[in-house]
Design goal:
Elements lengths: L2 H12 L6 H10 L9 H8 L8 H5 L7 H14 L4 H21 L33 H21 L9 H15 L8
Helix pairs in contact: 1-2, 1-6, 1-7, 2-6, 5-6
């Protein structure tokens, strides 16, 4: 799955329980944070033409951030940031694991290559998650999932009065929600 789909999935999950803005942010970010291990591609691109090109992305993507050790670190961080809110922490762990599931079922590369997920790292490298039926990143199921999640995101933003934009800008979030409500009306019983 692509990062946008992961983000929308995490934000949808964050809206499944009564969470405040900080808690929603933790749950949402947990759905994309495993892909921090893919940032090596920036160095790879910068060194392609050099005498010593790197292969950080191919070596570490789906390794450093896609495992139980990283999941536990994300969960502990959420527990600290949310001041012991277990519901936010449990949803964060679920969000993280939904990312792994999404990658397991729908992240095959265009060359047909699959990245096994070394789930038990750093404790063990014996168990690698892989599914032979994995569809490609550009396959129709990924597009369908993204479209459904976009529709859910627009509905929740219209109905609840906040959107994923709250993660980066309160002003942009209010503008987006206002535009939705001007276009589609206010939810029943609400005028603001």
């Amino acid at each position: 799955m692509n990062p946008i789909t992961h983000l929308l999935l995490g934000w949808g999950l964050a809206n499944s329980a009564p969470l405040d803005r900080r808690e929603r942010a933790c749950v949402t970010l947990a759905s994309v944070v495993p892909d921090l291990d893919g940032l090596g591609i920036i160095v790879d691109v910068a060194t392609w033409s050099s005498a010593a090109p790197t292969e950080l992305w191919g070596t570490y993507h789906h390794v450093l951030g896609h495992n139980l050790g990283f999941a536990l670190a994300v969960g502990l961080t959420t527990l600290l940031v949310t001041r012991g809110r277990w519901i936010a922490t449990l949803l964060t762990l679920l969000s993280f694991h939904l990312h792994l599931l999404g990658d397991l079922i729908g992240a095959r590369g265009p060359d047909g290559d699959q990245w096994p997920i070394p789930y038990l790292l750093p404790f063990s490298d014996l168990w690698q998650l892989v599914w032979s039926g994995q569809w490609g990143l550009n396959a129709w199921p990924n597009f369908l999932i993204t479209i459904v999640l976009l529709a859910l995101t627009f509905y929740l933003a219209w109905e609840r009065g906040y959107s994923p934009l709250e993660l980066v800008s309160g002003r942009a979030d209010r503008g987006f929600v206002t535009a939705l409500r001007q276009r589609f009306g206010f939810p029943t019983g609400r005028t603001v």
